[in-house]
Design brief:
alpha/beta, Bacterial polysaccharide co-polymerase-like
Length: 800
């Protein structure tokens, strides 16, 4: 059965070349990184829009609403069609009338009448030669500056007065063209209202012109004589006679059809139709019996198919072809005659071999012949079993086809029965529908004729000289308080959105050109190494060291509940679990270049591990030591180099960390050649002794690209932590440093991404912070007063 187990799923890495898909996380990080530039671009675009709008003269628009009523002739006139309908033609007449009035409002003759009435040719609004350019004081910026620093009255220049005389002449056609360009006539949908809009630089002029257009239209085109004099023409005697004749014809058709289907005259027809109805009833019963037989047959075939499917599922449960050992356990296969016969032959051959084995050896001719016969029977049995499995599949397919064919026959029989019933029902429906249509036609013609007769009687005697207005102003135009153009809010919104999109696109392009690691998912993409953890940005506290650099941040001790301390504790757990299959006693911490936070990580990791274990933090960065100055340890204190040179004891080189079971060994006296010191046999002997005295040793070494110190120490480390500063170190440098360690066969456990933005880690930290899981405060932890390490050795000095 082992060959039937599923193979493990192979994980395929996504292609990373070119970044074809926009990563939302990376886009968000780019926006946060360049947020000030994006905000500056948006503010700059809004300022440019403000300065541009300040030089645009505002345009005001006034609106007058006009109601155009239908004339009495269109309200009461009737236009008859062949079928007696009148509503559709009436609506078309009204719609045509309203469209005509809209075009009249836009006509040139009406515009010329308004221009002449208001004397617009003398207005600077419509005379380009009388218009003055936009004064400098009209700019919004200049008005704001003038409000801050008002000018003296003595310095104000007297504005030039226009010269009295005849205004420059301008052709009437040009004024009318300007007038029609600013006039807008828009009907309100599904109503008889019309909005008359006019735009002008002067708000009072806009309202005055809109009202003048409405008044001129009403007085010129919509005041007519009363329609009572012409209404009688629409109701002529010819229309009444046509309606009356149509009414008589529809009544005659209805009477003839009712006589045809009258029950008293249809008795003979019903008796003659009885045999056919009996035949239809007998045919219906025959169809019901056929459907019942097909239903029973379909149920039987479905059961047979289900049984065959169950046998087939048991046969192919382990795939195709099924294992022979499994087929021998199925009664449906073993019970077949051919398989039973082959199985019996195999048993007999096996019995013969067993009997001969008691007398003869394995190489005896009779024994060889019996073995060959047994092998042939086994192959024959295997063939019969596989053929039986194929027969099971064939039987299942045959049962499935029979069931499908039976279902199709049943569906066809039901459809034929349903079609026959629909034909009978359709005949009755058609008769009732025809009677209803004829009755409705008679009622419609009768109603139309009676209505026309009533209207003729109600028409009063015409009144000579009477007039009526078929249009009136619903809402007069008022002086607008705010300009309609330009729409400052829309302009600012478009400029802001456009600047925001440009800023985001620019930030994304700069992010694509950024050849650094920003997020944890890029570590596997560029380095193909696991991520042990991420450390947020932590601000250093305290004074600077002697070299002007900030001290190492001790987040685990100083801020035990901070996100940084939580991240270090998570890294401690990840590091331990990543090496459960091998010892992880000597831990090497390095990076590609200086300033990436490897010393900070080494110190905080030692404090985190020192809560429960004896930990030694060794400063092996002999070129640029940081631990001693950051922990306020004297620069002249003995350290690693002094211990290797046998000029100091181990107890003199160890400095305990308060609140933990960890201690620090500084670098010691600066050596002349750090590489020779770290690769010497004495260092190996020192490391061997220190490994016996401590549970774990954390070595803080120099960067991989600054020298070969990290490559040399990787030989003695059980695991290596590679620190990468987010958004700082170039990817080629990181790849080169990792390559050097891999060439030295260093056991790189993974990468720690340092100084990641705290915004992306805040939510994760809050979800994992529980009060019951916090570590005890340092004030409640009492460190024993006894020495951290007790060493027993025979020699008073030295290492060995």
């Amino acid at each position: 059965m082992e060959n039937l187990r599923a193979e493990p799923i192979q994980r395929v890495k996504k292609p990373s070349a070119g970044h074809p898909i926009i990563d939302p996380g990376r886009l968000g990080a780019a926006i946060l990184k360049y947020k000030r530039g994006i905000l500056f671009l948006v503010m700059l675009s809004l300022l440019a829009g403000y300065l541009g709008l300040s030089g645009v003269r505002p345009v005001y628009q006034a609106t007058a609403t006009l109601l155009i009523e239908r004339p009495a002739v269109l309200s009461k006139a009737v236009t008859l069609s062949k079928d007696g309908s009148k509503s559709s033609n009436k609506d078309e007449e009204v719609q045509s009338f309203l469209q005509t009035q809209h075009e009249i409002l836009r006509s040139r003759s009406l515009a010329e009448a308004v221009v002449a009435e208001l004397n617009l040719t003398e207005q600077a609004e419509f005379n380009p030669e009388m218009q003055t350019p936009l004064a400098l004081d009209e700019f919004l910026l200049m008005r704001w500056l003038k409000s801050l620093w008002p000018m003296d009255a003595d310095n104000d220049e007297t504005p030039e007065q226009p010269v009295e005389g005849v205004a420059p002449s301008i052709p009437l056609e040009q004024v009318v063209a300007i007038f029609m360009e600013r006039l807008s006539v828009e009907p309100v949908r599904n109503t008889q209202l019309v909005d008359i809009r006019f735009s002008a630089f002067d708000p009072e002029m806009a309202a005055r012109v809109a009202n003048a257009v409405a008044d001129q239209y009403i007085s010129t085109y919509m005041t007519v004589e009363t329609a009572q004099a012409v209404e009688g023409e629409a109701l002529s005697s010819e229309d009444l006679e046509a309606v009356h004749q149509r009414l008589l014809e529809s009544e005659a058709r209805l009477n003839r059809f009712q006589q045809f289907v009258d029950p008293q005259q249809a008795d003979g027809i019903e008796e003659a139709s009885d045999p056919g109805q009996n035949d239809q009833g007998q045919g219906g019963r025959d169809n019901d019996e056929v459907i019942a037989e097909l239903t029973v047959r379909n149920v039987a075939l479905k059961r047979a198919r289900i049984e065959a499917e169950n046998i087939y599922d048991r046969v192919v449960i382990f795939g195709a072809p099924p294992p022979v050992e499994y087929l021998l356990q199925l009664p449906e296969i073993v019970g077949r005659p051919l398989v039973a016969a082959a199985l019996e032959r195999q048993k007999n051959a096996q019995s013969r071999v067993d009997e001969l084995a008691k007398t003869y050896g394995a190489k005896h001719p009779k024994m060889i012949s019996a073995q060959a016969e047994l092998t042939g029977f086994k192959k024959d049995l295997e063939t019969q079993l596989l053929d039986a499995a194929l027969d099971v599949e064939s039987e299942y397919q045959a049962a499935l086809e029979k069931e499908r064919a039976s279902s199709r026959q049943l569906s066809m029989a039901r459809q034929r029965l349903q079609d026959a019933e629909q034909v009978i029902s359709r005949q009755s429906e058609l008769e009732m529908q025809l009677i209803s249509e004829l009755t409705q036609e008679v009622e419609s013609n009768r109603t139309l004729y009676e209505g026309l007769m009533t209207r003729v009687r109600e028409i009063p005697t015409p009144i000579p000289g009477a007039t009526v207005k078929n249009a009136r102003v619903v809402d007069s135009a008022v002086t607008p308080g705010l300009p309609s153009k330009p729409d400052t809010l829309l302009v600012y919104l478009i400029l802001g959105i456009a600047a925001l999109m440009v800023g985001i696109a620019r930030a994304w392009m700069r992010s694509l050109r950024d050849n650094t690691i920003q997020q944890t998912n890029q570590v596997d993409e560029f380095l193909h190494l696991p991520v042990l953890g991420s450390l947020p940005i932590a601000e250093n506290t305290g004074s600077t060291d002697g070299q002007g650099e900030s001290p190492i941040y001790e987040g685990v001790q100083s801020s035990a509940d901070s996100p940084f301390a939580e991240a270090v504790r998570s890294l401690r757990t990840s590091l331990i679990l990543s090496r459960v299959d091998r010892t992880c006693k000597v831990i090497l911490v390095t990076s590609s270049q200086q300033g990436e936070g490897k010393s900070t990580l080494a110190l905080n990791l030692a404090e985190a591990l020192g809560k429960h274990e004896e930990v030694l933090l060794m400063d092996a960065d002999l070129r640029r030591s940081m631990l001693a100055a950051s922990l306020n340890i004297s620069l002249n204190a003995p350290g690693l180099t002094d211990l290797i040179a046998n000029t100091a004891e181990i107890e003199q080189c160890l400095h305990p960390l308060k609140g933990t079971r960890a201690s620090v060994m500084p670098a010691g006296s600066p050596p002349g050649n750090p590489e020779e010191v770290l690769s010497s046999r004495k260092f190996q002997m020192v490391l061997a002794v220190l490994k016996k005295l401590h549970d774990r040793i954390i070595i803080d070494t120099g960067p991989t690209l600054a020298g070969s110190d990290a490559t040399i120490l990787s030989e003695f480390a059980d695991t290596i932590i590679y620190v990468v500063k987010a958004g700082e170190t170039q990817v080629p440098k990181i790849q080169e440093g990792v390559r050097r360690l891999q060439e030295a066969e260093g056991a790189i456990a993974g990468v720690v991404l340092n100084q990641v933005s705290s915004v992306s880690l805040k939510k994760q930290f809050e979800q994992r912070k529980y009060p019951t899981y916090t570590e005890p405060e340092s004030s409640e932890t009492k460190v024993p007063e006894e020495p951290l390490i007790t060493i027993q050795r025979k020699e008073p000095t030295g290492i060995v």
